[in-house]
Design brief:
The chain has 129 residues and is an alpha/beta fold. It is built from 3 helices and 7 strands, in the order ββαβαβαβββ. It has a 4-stranded parallel sheet with strand order 2-3-4-5, covered by helices on one side. Helix 1 packs parallel to helix 2.
Amino acid sequence: MTLISSKKIYFASDQHFGAPSPELSFPREKKFIQWLDEIKHDAEALFLLGDLFDFWFEYKTVVPKGFIRVLGKLAELRDSGIPIYFFVGNHDLWMSDYFEKELDIPTYRDNQEFTFGSKTFLIGHGDGK
């Protein structure tokens, strides 16, 4: 995939929202949402490189309780036309199709090559898979 633009490519990894507890990670969640608000003005793309939540347990008809602010902000960015790519991390093993169906965010389980300008990058979670 080739992306060419004067805008910026952003990366975020290993936020582990919910750890060590939802209450203690809430300030980090708020800072992350603030950061998403800041980058939306010049983002060409956003890569989420896994472990956004400490553990994501997605079942056939339900998703984990909480983190609605993060999910809502990701939906807002995606709905505005910013491509978002999610790479499954070692704490996301139970991820199914929620991000793809509800948020229009493609989900990758393996490393992928992306080209920015004339440079090609291998992008993935990097947990040794």
